[in-house]
Amino acid sequence: MQSPARKPARERVLDAAHHLMSTVGLARTTTKEIARAAGCSEAALYKHFASKEELFIHVLTERLPQLAPLLHGLAAEPGRRTLAENLTEIARQAALFYEQSFPIAASLYAETQLRRRHDDAMREVGKGPHLPIEGLTAYLRAEQAAGRVRADADPFAAASLLIGACAQRAFAYDAAPGGRPPVDDFARRLVRTLLSGISAADGRT
User: Are 117 and 36 within 8 A, CB to CB?
Assistant: First the structure.
């Protein structure tokens, strides 16, 4: 395993950016501070990343749990493992992603100009917070076509419920007496409830 001092400059910059953005937030993190923490100059940082927004995107995609590969793989091969197992793994990865990304991204919502620059940068590279819902919707539609999801089910609504719950876990429970629900238990319970529903009348009102 490489020591931090022997890592390539790009990796050191990403590590430093991840640490600083996680501890002080995106808005308060500067490229100057990132470069200092990485042991390089700002000029060296800009050889690898055009802006702080671009660096943030790479932190999200290279340092946090990833949903896209999992969702794409499942959508391409519906029927692999059980539906409950697949959805539980999706929920687990989503919960971990939002748990780790929320402290970084929260400050975006306090600064309109920073949020606008971030949104523009995300659009330029085809990224955005809508993609996990779109990816999960595509997977559920593939399972629907394979007969493992009811024909009258709404894949978009189901995907929105699951991803939304995982995002909610990231910030709603910090002030709760017990803290955040453990991720594995949370994922299992969420999927069990999503698959079974809560109506005692089998959907009839």
Answer: no
